[in-house]
Write a structure and sequence with these properties.
It contains 13 helices and nine strands. By secondary structure, the protein is an alpha/beta fold. Among the domains are: 4-78, no CATH class; 308-339. Strand 6, helix 11 and strand 7 form a beta-alpha-beta unit. The mean pLDDT is 85. The protein binds adenosine-5'-triphosphate.
Length: 339
């Protein structure tokens, strides 16, 4: 960043205007901004000796820190997008060393369900994908990204985190509001307009959960379902991980169909471990795992897709009754159940 040589000469208000993320420099270092008409350099020069000594710095060090912060931020913003079109799972071996017969390619936008008995290797399969296994895990599978072996440093890079996980039990322990939490996340992703993003995410989350909450709701007072809804919306709109892994969303008490639609709409690969026929049939394919190996891959048939329509109708009826129950109403048993 050649410009960084001069950045400290910027008035703080111009700096914040041009590089909104620069606000983080002041926040992280506990530097209150009183006069935005000051230049950064004048501001730093005006800091008292004792104040700087507490930070173990002098003015010159702080300017250096400022420059290096701005350089790093610019570099992160300019990093090429983590552009994944597809992943390929090259077969390994099951627990009895039998080779897996099929390689499997999964494209962006696909929903893949993973089914199989307890202990059959569902988590192992997901872990292989998450860590981009290169024949170096117990299954000896290999994962290709866009048809090629991924660069080695991707496997351990935070920015290139392949998988965002939505686990079954989510409890927040941070003492902040919903809005503050999303804004923190948005700022860590260097997204401008983080306040607007927070509003957008809360509004999507409210479409998934029953009782509404807003950006001022304390994070710790969200119910399990509300937390899950918030994490789905946050993952859909803020996470850069191209693969989302969902563990049994059917138990979350949220509108699971809408939740999936939200995630798919963001051009991600969604892998979902489920026992729910409705979700399983929403997937394009389901991977059947047995004895540590991929036993088969079933492409959802047109007959199953037709069945999905009827299943969705039945599910809507159940949802309607569930809403009535939640709202303390009598269940108006309609004709649809009286046959
Ligand atoms: N191909 C394999 N070769 C050797 N070990 C394997 C293989 N696949 C899975 N395992 C091991 O088997 C154990 C059970 O697998 P895993 O935890 O993935 O099962 P799961 O289907 O997720 O079970 P659950 O439904 O109970 O969560 C793990 O220790 C895993 O590392």
């Amino acid at each position: 960043m050649n410009e960084s040589v001069l950045l400290e000469e910027f008035k703080i208000k111009d700096l914040l205007d041009k590089y909104p993320y620069s606000k983080e420099f002041f926040n992280i270092n506990g530097l209150p901004i009183d006069d935005v008409d000051n230049t950064v350099k004048d501001y730093i020069d005006s800091l008292g000796y004792v104040f700087l000594e507490d930070m173990g710095l002098n003015q010159e060090d702080l300017i250096k820190r400022f420059r290096s912060f701005m350089c790093r931020m610019k570099a992160i913003r300019e990093e090429p997008a983590f552009n994944i079109r597809d992943i390929t799972i090259l077969g390994g071996r099951d627990k009895t060393e039998r080779p897996e017969e099929k390689d499997l390619k999964i494209c962006i936008g696909e929903i893949i369900c993973i089914v199989g008995p307890t202990g059959s290797g569902k988590s192992r399969l997901l872990a292989d994908i998450e860590w981009m296994a290169q024949r170096d895990t117990p299954t000896r599978r290999q994962i290709l990204i866009n048809g090629s072996v991924p660069p080695n440093d991707w496997r351990f890079s935070v920015e290139h985190k392949l998988v965002a996980q939505l686990s079954q039990n989510m409890n927040f322990v941070m003492d902040v509001s919903v809005g503050e939490f999303i804004i923190l996340h948005a700022q860590s992703r260097l997204i401008d307009n983080s306040e607007r993003k927070a509003q957008e995410i809360v509004s999507h989350a409210n479409e998934l959960s029953g009782e509404r909450f807003d950006i001022n709701t304390p994070l710790t007072s969200l119910s399990g379902g509300q937390s899950r809804a918030l994490m789905v919306a946050d993952t859909a709109f803020l996470s850069t991980s191209p693969i989302v892994l969902i563990d049994e969303i059917e138990n979350a008490g949220i509108n699971r169909k809408k939740a999936l639609e939200l995630l798919i709409g963001q051009n991600k690969i969604v892998l979902i471990a489920t026992h729910d026929p409705l979700l399983a049939l929403m997937g394009n394919k389901r991977i059947v795992v047995k004895n540590g190996g991929i036993q088969k891959v079933i492409t959802t048939t047109s007959n199953e897709k037709k069945g999905l329509l009827r299943l969705t109708e039945i599910d809507n009826i159940l949802m309607k009754y569930r809403e009535s129950l939640r709202n303390g109403q009598l269940l108006e048993i309609g004709d649809e159940l009286l046959w």
